[in-house]
Amino acid sequence: MRLIFVGFGTVGQGLAELLVEKKDLLSRRYGLEPVVVGISDEMKGSVINPAGIDLTEPLDLLKSEKSLCDMEIGKYDGNALDMIRDAGADVMLEATYTNIKTGEPATSHIKAALEKGLHVVTTNKGPLALHYQDLVQIAEATQVQFLFEGTVMSGTPLLNLLRETLAGSTIAEIKGILNGTTNYILTRMEEGLPYEDALKKAQELGYAEAVPDADVLGWDALAKVTILAKVVYGSNADPFDYPCQGITEITASAIEEAKSRGKRFKLIGKVWSEKGIAKASVAPEEVDVSHPLASVMGATNAVTVTTDTLGDVTVVGPGAGRKETGFSMLIDLIKIASEIRRKR
Ligand code: HSE
Question: How far is 125 from 149, CA to CA, in rounded Å?
Fold first, then answer.
């Protein structure tokens, strides 16, 4: 399987590290021996090599503050769309930054790759929240896989759970903490850290979006509830059709005051079906400290799915992070490899 990375920031590098670390396991357990033939990154440079790129080289270069232009072989001047056209890849791993208002540049990358017959794995929420139906249709027409497990709850399995494991269930509601950055900030503020310092730390830890406004204004959680509404209820609503409020107005003293009443602020994303129509919202809520969601701290996410078959099913796990989101792409990659093998 020949891969290209489009976007080689925190998430792309997280996946690359896993591919290096788990090389033997992937080969032994799944017969998966991927060859990376290109890496394209707007900021870090681009490289192409049909013979395969040893991922340790770009990872080491970027760790020492160098760029992909310093690679020994294969420096490439084209952009991501050129690489999608020229690299001869089977799979594109799209992990550029999310823009929830335009979905670009990721939507153009994904469209080009799907139209060319490449399987696509992405963690980018913009294209899914804005153009889900269009992209799925292209993937169906060109008979390739379009997978995006990491768009919601990073590598913690939620979309696969909803689409496969809970097959046959009717889902009344999905509700919980869907943004790691804001949950981390609220946790650290309760410990006494000022808002700005907590946000900076979330950026350092690789939780926050490239422009962290998207986290603190609630847009990231909004993109996620929109994706859930599309995947679970077939909605075609736009993210900004739904009410959305972030955490920017929650002060340290409000957190303290809530605590004195036995409450804790959590940014809650919800999606539910009302008379066959998908509804969604994002807003901070004061939850009782005895409530299970109150004990979910740091960048951890937690979501309760209300079903007609099992009642409530709750998933708790990492919602953001380098390795955690990189891992979501690995899950999708293994799935593509299995599907290709099954069809042979
Ligand atoms: N910025 C996002 C978060 C990353 O903090 O949850 C994962 O989608």
Answer: 10
* One-letter amino acid of 68: L
Q: Where are the domains of the chain?
A: 2-155+323-343, 159-318
Q: Ligand 1 atom closest to Cα of 319?
A: 6
Residue 343, pLDDT score = 85
Distance in Å from the first CA to the final CA of the chain:
14
321 CB under 6 A from ligand 1?
Answer: no
User: Average pLDDT of the chain?
Assistant: 97
Whole-number Cα distances in Å, 73 to 37, 67, 77, 78:
12, 13, 13, 15
pLDDT band at 210 (very low <50, low <70, confident <90, very high): confident
| 155-169 pLDDT per residue, tens | 999 999 999 999 999
Regarding the domain delimited by 159-318, which CATH topology (the fold level of the hierarchy) does it fall under?
Answer: Dihydrodipicolinate Reductase; domain 2 (3.30.360)
pTM for the model: 0.96
Condensed to tens digits (0 to 9), the pLDDT of residues 214-228 reads 999 999 999 999 999
- Answer yes or no: are the C-beta atoms of 265 and 258 closer than 8 Å: yes
> Which residues does the annotation mark as catalytic?
224
Q: Is the pLDDT of residue 88 over 90?
A: yes
How is domain 2-155+323-343 classified at the CATH fold level?
Rossmann fold (3.40.50)
Which atom of ligand 1 is nearest the CA belonging to 178? 6
Tokens 């809530």 map to which residue? 258
On whether the CB atoms of residues 323 and 108 are closer than 8 A, the answer is no
DSSP 20: H
Q: Which of 154, 183, 267, 282 is the pocket-test mutation for ligand 1 (most atoms within 8 Å of CB)?
A: 154
CA 261/CA 23 separation, integer angstroms: 51
23 phi/psi in degrees, rounded to 5: -50, -50
> Is the shortest distance between the CB of 154 and ligand 1 below 6 Å?
yes
